[in-house]
Specification:
The protein is an alpha/beta fold and 143 residues long. The chain is 23% helix and 34% strand.
Length: 143
């Protein structure tokens, strides 16, 4: 069987991202390994209680991996929210919204009823989109 182990977000600053995901969202560190000979840090976080998947907080590559121009373009796209979206589910969107807002999360919109459930969104410090949804219309297994 093949399964998803990790997904990845580009981040502008790994320390800032680490603080946001652990202190603000309340997630835990799954892996934090620096490979100094490569100038690389493998940093993975994930929600407590969901051990089977993590989010890699990957620094935007600089030379020699990407040239300066490409690195800058990627940083700009991430800041604009074009780096991708993380979809989170919760049992109570309003309660989760209120809890995260009290921790300093700035939401783009209030929890709003949609055809599939109750939904809201926010961004991490790098600009990555995060949607928080209370699914109402689908079965939990989606089959």
């Amino acid at each position: 069987m093949i399964r998803i182990a990790n997904a990845q977000f580009w981040v502008h600053d790994q320390e800032e991202a680490l603080a946001f995901y652990t202190r603000t969202l309340g997630w835990e560190v799954r892996s934090d390994v620096t490979m100094s000979e490569w100038g690389f840090r493998w940093l993975v976080v994930g929600p407590s209680g969901q051990q089977d998947v993590g989010l890699v907080l990957m620094s935007i590559p600089k030379p020699p991996m990407f040239d300066v121009s490409t690195s800058g373009q990627l940083a700009e796209l991430v800041a604009k929210g074009a780096g991708g979206t993380l979809f989170l589910e919760t049992d109570d969107c309003q309660a989760s919204h209120d809890e995260l807002r009290a921790r300093g999360v700035e939401f783009n919109d209030p929890p709003t009823r949609q055809p599939y459930g109750i939904d809201t969104s926010f961004r991490d410090p790098s600009g990555n989109n995060i949607r928080l949804t209370q699914v109402l219309e689908f079965s939990p297994d989606r089959t």
